[in-house]
Specification:
Elements: E1 9-10, E2 61-67, H1 75-85, E3 89-96, E4 99-107, H2 113-141, E5 146-151, E6 154-159, H3 169-173
Parallel strand pairs: 2-3
Antiparallel strand pairs: 1-2, 3-4, 5-6
Length: 177
């Protein structure tokens, strides 16, 4: 299973010291230790993370959202993205007819995001159960190519006939070891 995420920006950090693999907090340019928001979860030992591009401390990754109505934050849609990508900061920039006037800054584990996290836990439990079921299905079929399709709130498994390809060859090559 491949999970991909995209980063909008990152907060300043000491570019002289190379980031460590364990994403330890690096000093800010002013020389004081960077504040480190609490991790949303730890990686289970059977999950391998492959990072691409330049290394930035996880504690400095930032999501940017824009919208016109500051009173209508859609945390139910936004927070799962933060949680699953382990992005600790989000900046909401508000505009009126394209002219930005306010930027609200949030950090996971602080302020009203604590309540948002509490509210999202039940959904994450369901997601974990679903991903476990998908993992079991994939393991049961072994090297047989399958497709999982949700039809009418029911997850169905279809075998892909030998020789048929559902993805372009270049995309398929990304999944073949």
């Amino acid at each position: 299973m491949v999970v991909r995420c995209e980063t909008d920006a990152y907060l300043p950090h000491d570019t002289v010291s190379p980031p460590s693999c364990n994403n330890a907090s690096l000093p800010e340019s002013g020389g004081t230790p960077a504040s480190q928001p609490p991790r949303l979860s730890s990686n289970p030992p059977d999950i391998k993370i492959v990072r691409a591009g330049s290394q930035v401390p996880q504690t400095h990754i930032l999501e940017i959202k824009t919208q016109s109505n500051p009173g209508d934050l859609k945390w139910a849609r936004t927070y799962p993205q933060l949680y699953l990508s382990q992005t600790p900061h989000i900046y909401y920039a508000f505009h009126t007819r394209g002219v930005f006037h306010t930027v609200d800054k949030y950090t996971t584990g602080e302020g009203n995001l604590i309540a948002v996290d509490q509210g999202a836990r039940e959904g994450f439990k369901k997601l974990r159960k679903l991903l476990g079921a998908i993992k079991s299905i994939v393991q049961r079929y072994g090297s047989t190519r399958i497709s999982l399709i949700c039809q009418g709130r029911e997850l169905k498994v279809y075998r892909i006939p030998q020789g048929q390809i559902c993805l372009p060859e270049d995309a398929l090559a990304l999944f073949v070891a």
